[in-house]
Amino acid sequence: MLKYAARSDVGCSRSNNEDNFAAAPEHDLWILADGVGGHDAGEIASEIACQVIRDEVAAGRDMKSAIEAAHQAILAAPEKGRGRPGMASTVVTLQVKENGFEIAWVGDSRCYLWSEQRGLEQISRDHSLVQRLLEEQHINEDEAASHPGRNIVLQALGQDNLEKLQVDTIRDQFEPGQILLMCSDGLNDYVQHEDIVASFRELDDLDAIADSLIEKTLANNGADNVTVVLVQAPSSAEGLREAEAVSAAEAGKFSRPLLWLGGALALAAIYFLLQGS
Questions:
Q1: What are the backbone angles phi and psi of residue 250, rounded to the nearest 5°?
Q2: Residue 267: per-residue pLDDT
Q3: DSSP string, 118-161
Q4: What is the model's pTM?
Q5: Collapsing DSSP states into helix, strand and coil, what is residue 48?
Q6: Per-residue pLDDT at 1
Q7: Are 133 and 113 within 8 A, CB to CB?
Q8: Low-confidence ranges of the chain (pLDDT < 70)
Q9: At what angle do helices 42-58 and 63-76 cross, to 10 degrees?
């Protein structure tokens, strides 16, 4: 089983927490959703996102399909008496498969990869106004940090003016000891990159790192809700192989009955052929 830790806090200015997260280690799945600010019932949208994605993946759907299903569920929820029209949520999801992982996201909730060798790298790409302005070279990194539209997202689950929901995905391999950090923008808006790095360098326990990141956000008067989810690969190649073996063994539980059934059907077919002859 992979190690993980998760924390969420309402922050210094909000009266309710619109962030939600879900941990489903039995499916090697973690989800973080952030109700979009300015929309009523953002906490309901993020809750629906976590519930639907978890249920869809548990039923065998891939994460992209699960996220698309969550988008439709949020759009349909107000007519069913849950939430309000206009509610929306960003989301970032992680699923570990053997010694690899897949990240999928919509909006500006982020995923970072930490390792001692490579440091802290953002591996997701924000679906935001500021990110687009950066890519089109209308602003630089310094201007982005204080841009008045830095919290405007261009893609969100439940957003009703989208021609098509954009779900981005990344697949990669886990190296021993690496940590994936998923977070809402309440972290990266209020804690500098180097201060996030310091928590990883100074601490070696996932719970302690998660606590440190929340504490730093609050110490900087973080006005937004803040949520962090950390998932760590085994610390050795042997550990990764053991995790892969567990996955294979779990798959074998389902394949053995099928093999038995196939053998029984084959024997039955031979019996009827002999009877017919």
A1: -60, -40
A2: 44
A3: TEEEE-S---BHHHHHHHTTSS-HHHHHT-TTTT-BS--BT-TT
A4: 0.84
A5: helix
A6: 72
A7: no
A8: 37-39, 236-277
A9: 140
